[in-house]
Write a structure and sequence with these properties.
This protein has twelve helices and eleven strands. It has 283 residues and is α/β, with parallel strands linked by helices. It folds into two domains: 33 residues; 234 residues, Vaccinia Virus protein VP39 (Rossmann fold). A seven-stranded mixed β-sheet has the order 3-2-1-7-8-11-9, sandwiched between helices. The chain has a three-stranded mixed β-sheet with strand order 4-6-5. It is globular and about 50 Å long.
């Protein structure tokens, strides 16, 4: 009853329309005005921006979800030696291969799938392809798989009482091959404690029952996040977006005035789509 009353009041005051308009402007800007180049260059710039935010927002814990070889976790460990780093890799073969090296660096590297429910779950590793393509989902193509049954948890259940602590804050790096919306669906309480989210999105249906970039953005916008920058790692079919909690977005302002800050470079690298080589050279 109370929620319906709040919604009616928001509609009557125009707050709902304003929220929709602001959401559109934010997504327009991150996709049009801050257009990174395709491929590794834009991805590296966005990754550097994420690491730079550690200095600004100072999270207590960084979760590397879909960690593979833990390269992001290692970069975080070099950047912030005192920050707790927890990495999750569902593929047991991948986990076994990298567990010793990551543990030696003080990284809590766990063989777990992160999803929207707790329990045993089947993951799918495309046979003969890169292990990094392991997913909770089947691909939209005829290929053979190595299937593994592994333990799965939601972020909310996994962290439990830690989410009640007032002094806990998190960063999330989510690279889960089409299953990003499932991770977010199991993390409403975690998102309340999260300051930044780096998340892989898709607009092309690579996976059966896979989510979409629009769905990811809608979930995070509703949770109070704002999109800061994106890359075009694989063009506009698969890419990454960096979101920051709206309540701390003002802390990024000083970096926007520094031409040498990784944040600003991550926003302006590359030329907008449709820009010709001649136009790019004139900027």
């Amino acid at each position: 009853m109370l929620e319906r009353l709040k919604k009616r009041l928001a509609d009557w005051l125009g707050i709902t329309r304003l929220n929709h308009a602001v959401s559109f402007v934010l997504m327009r800007d991150v996709n049009v005005l801050s257009s990174a180049p395709k491929g590794a260059e834009g991805h590296a710039a966005l990754r550097a921006t994420f690491l730079h935010l550690i200095d600004i927002l100072k999270p207590d814990v960084i979760c590397d979800i879909g960690a593979f070889d833990g390269s992001l976790s290692l970069a975080v460990r070099d950047k912030a030696p005192n920050c707790e780093v927890i990495a999750f890799e569902a593929n047991p073969k991948t986990h076994a291969r990298h567990r010793e090296a990551l543990s030696a660096r003080g990284i809590d590297y766990r063989n777990l799938a992160i999803s929207d429910s707790d329990g045993r779950i089947t993951i799918h590793a495309p046979r003969g392809q890169h292990e990094g393509k392991t997913s909770l989902l089947l691909r939209n193509e005829e290929i053979a798989y190595e299937d593994y049954e592994v333990e799965a948890h939601t972020l909310d259940s996994l962290f439990g009482d830690r989410l009640n602590a007032r002094d806990q804050s998190f960063f999330l790096w989510i690279d889960v091959e089409g299953a990003a919306e499932r991770v977010l669906a199991g993390a409403p309480r975690m998102l309340e404690k999260t300051l930044a989210v780096f998340i892989e999105c898709e607009t092309f249906p690579f996976w059966q029952e896979g989510g979409s970039a629009g769905g990811v953005a809608d979930t995070l916008l509703r949770a109070g996040f704002v999109p800061v920058a994106r890359d075009r790692e694989y063009g506009d079919k698969q890419f990454n977006v960096l979101f920051v909690a709206g309540r701390v977005a003002h802390l990024l302002a000083p970096s926007l005035f520094s031409a040498n800050s990784p944040l600003r470079k991550g926003l302006i690298s590359g030329s907008p789509p449709g820009t010709t080589d001649r136009e790019a050279a004139q900027h």
